[in-house]
Amino acid sequence: MNVRPDVTYRNVGLRNRARGLFTKPELSGAQTKYASLFALASGDLVYSKLFGWEGAIAVVPPWADGAFVSAEFPTYSLSAEIDRNYLRHVIGWEGFAKQMADATTGMGQRRQRINPDQFERLLMPLPDPSDQHHIATILDQVSAASHHAEQVIGFERSWRRLVELLTFGDTYPTTQLRKILRPKAGEPIERDATYDIAGVYSFGRGLLPRGRLRGTDTKYKTFTSLAENDLIYSKFGAFEGAVAVVAKDFEGTSVSPEFPVFELRDDADPRFLRYCVIAESFVAQLRSATSGVGARQKRVSPSAFLELSVPMPSRDRQHEIANRLDLASRALELKQNAERISQSLLPAARNQMFARLT
């Protein structure tokens, strides 16, 4: 269709990894450089010449019927013998994605292209229509069982609200961290020794392993060795909630002076404190205690950190709250593990199904 300057065109784009179409801002005929645009019809197959190597391909859904794309998006009408749902699974299959990547010509991300003649030489398994429908039905069922991401996100939000409610959400007396923590001194680095290094995730997600490091390969003069139930935070990442109580798995690992470490005094339950320091009210204190400008200069000094406050109910109450939040945390972990497993189901099912047909 020739572009008219007095017409506005509904415009769509393609997500990578065969994740479908998305709505783009409407295109004014007076402002576009394209002389012609192409109208999509529900059930068409469309791909991006420029981003086909990333799997930018889709079967047009009903909502995009009548939307327009440029000549950079070759479009094909399909014969009645092709089941659209079957085709949607084929183009999402990693075997087909590899073919598209291999068909790419040109050098550099902005020059990589799949032209129509190359695209049309790609191969796909094509059983008879009844088998296509049967396969698509099975894969649709697997796909439906794999869509738990929104549930997990909602569950995590509820978990964080519970952490906030059971720690800072009551009228417990508060105490400054300097009254329950003792700074832990670093130890001189031995140049011929090898150290297991740890770091701290942002947003209260605990510690992470950062590999092994020889003493000769660091500029630091000291490392601090971690023990279970120590409290640690990142000077750089504190404003994003990079603070944690050390789990047993990280005992004996080491951190640089950029990660101040503290031992707990006896009147604080380490499990209860673990939840206090990831609660939103505590992270808000960390943000207020941050000094410096710019992402790489924002810091929370150890002295400022020790001035922050946490709730301090009785030891028995701390223990009770920690038990309840531990149960909720285990439930969240199970949800997250189920999500990771479920997300691998559809790719595995597609591989198994289409490998038998090729």
Could you give the topology of this structure?
Elements: E1 8-14, E2 21-28, E3 38-39, E4 45-47, E5 57-59, E6 68-69, E7 75-76, H1 84-92, H2 94-102, H3 116-119, H4 129-145, H5 149-167, E8 174-176, E9 181-183, E10 187-188, E11 194-200, E12 207-214, E13 222-225, E14 231-233, E15 243-245, E16 254-255, E17 261-264, H6 270-276, H7 280-289, H8 302-306, E18 309-311, H9 315-355
Helix pairs in contact: 1-4, 4-9, 5-9, 6-9
Features:
358 residues, Adenine-n6-DNA-methyltransferase TaqI, Chain A, domain 2, 2 domains, three-stranded antiparallel β-sheet, 18 strands, 19% strand, elongated
Helix content: 25-40%
What share of residues are in beta strands? 15-25%
Tally of DSSP β-strands: 18
The rounded distance between the terminal residues' Cα atoms is 38 Å
Backbone structural class: alpha+beta
Count helical runs: 9
CATH topology descriptor of the largest domain:
Adenine-n6-DNA-methyltransferase TaqI, Chain A, domain 2
- CATH-level-4 superfamily name of the largest domain: DNA methylase specificity domains
What is the C-level CATH assignment of the largest domain? Alpha Beta
Give the tally of structural domains: 2
Topology pattern, helix = H, strand = E:
EEEEEEEHHHHHEEEEEEEEEEHHHEH
Mean pLDDT: 91
The general outline is: elongated
**Most strands sheet:** 4 strands, antiparallel
| Poorly predicted regions | none
Strand order of the largest sheet: 9-17-14-15
Rg is: 28 Å
Named at the architecture level, the CATH assignment of the largest domain is Alpha-Beta Complex
